Amino acid sequence: MAGTIENTNGKIAIDKKVIEDYAGHAALDCFGIVGMASTGMKDGIVKMLKGDSISRGVIVEKDENEQLIIEFHIIVAYGVGIPAVVKNLSSNVKYQVEDYTGMKVKAVNVYVEGVRVID
């Protein structure tokens, strides 16, 4: 379980997979991101993920203060400024996940795994 929110009406439990899926889709809405990446452990080959497997490029963990740490493995479009893309991704995802879940996002860590030319 990624997080539990308590209020006067009871508890809300949000599964880690739900947050990973939401964060993955929020990331794909950012300019310059072509897709999420999954790195093959044996040979280091990076595969671009689409559709239902999008959350495999996203890892959500909680720290000791119950704050979220979100890790992205992304593929960016050729010719875009990587620092600008990563800054936009971090702020956009942080805002959207906090708004969606009501939980605090402590950090968004981004790993650029590849560059693709888009048509």
Structural features, described:
The protein is built from two helices and seven strands; from the N terminus they run ββαββββαβ. By secondary structure, the chain is α+β, with helices and mostly antiparallel strands. Strand 6, helix 2 and strand 7 form a beta-alpha-beta unit.
Distance between the termini: 39 Å
| Rounded average pLDDT | 84
In one word, what is the shape?
elongated
Helix-strand category: alpha+beta
Largest sheet: 5 strands, mixed
What Rg do the Cα atoms give? 15 Å
Q: Can you give the helix content as a percent range?
A: 25-40%
Order of helices and strands: EEHEEEEHE
Number of strands: 7
Low-confidence parts: none
Which range does the strand content fall in? 35-45%
Continuous helix count = 2
Question: How would the blueprint of this fold be written?
Answer:
Blueprint: E1 3-7, E2 10-14, H1 16-28, E3 33-39, E4 46-49, E5 58-62, E6 68-77, H2 82-101, E7 105-116
Parallel strand pairs: 6-7
Antiparallel strand pairs: 1-2, 3-4, 3-6, 5-6
Helix pairs in contact: 1-2
